[in-house]
Each structure stands twice: as C-alpha cells, then as structure tokens.
Amino acid sequence: MSSNYNKDSLIRRLKRIEGQVRGLQKMLEEERRCADILTQLSAVKGALNKTAEEIMKGYTKSCILEYEETGNEKMLDELIQVLSKFREI
Description:
By secondary structure, this protein is an all-alpha fold. The chain contains three helices and no strands. Helix 1 packs antiparallel against helix 2 and helix 2 packs antiparallel against helix 3.
C-alpha cells in the first residue's frame, strides 16, 4: 500500500472500530433499545467512512505521483475504477 498515510493511525482507528462492533454485538445480546443500537451503528459507519477516506487520500496521492513520474496511464485508470467503487460505499 501507499506510504502517503499514517499506518499506525489507521490501525488504531480500525481497532477502535472493532471495539465498537463488539459493543454492538453486546448491545444486541442485552436487547438494548433500538435507538441506542442505531446510534452506535451510525458511529461505526462514520468511523469506517473516515478510515476509507484517509486511505483513499493516500492512494490518490500515490497514483498521481506515480503517473507524474512514469506517465503510466494505467495508474489513472485504476484510480478512476477505485473512486467509482468508493463512491458506491
């Protein structure tokens, strides 16, 4: 993967998200209120989106820098494909 992002920061984010998901499982097991569960789901979704955004920023920078250095248009095509998929999330 690209070095245009902070790997340690992303790993910390993902571990936090992992804890949130475990919390959701516990909330369901305890039959907590739907409003509370949905609020937590929204927080997890937001955290995942922010993590994806950070990775996408690094990937985009990496692709552009490589294109500038090599002129390899395949990198730009790949970037466009990934951006299209990312938009669907």
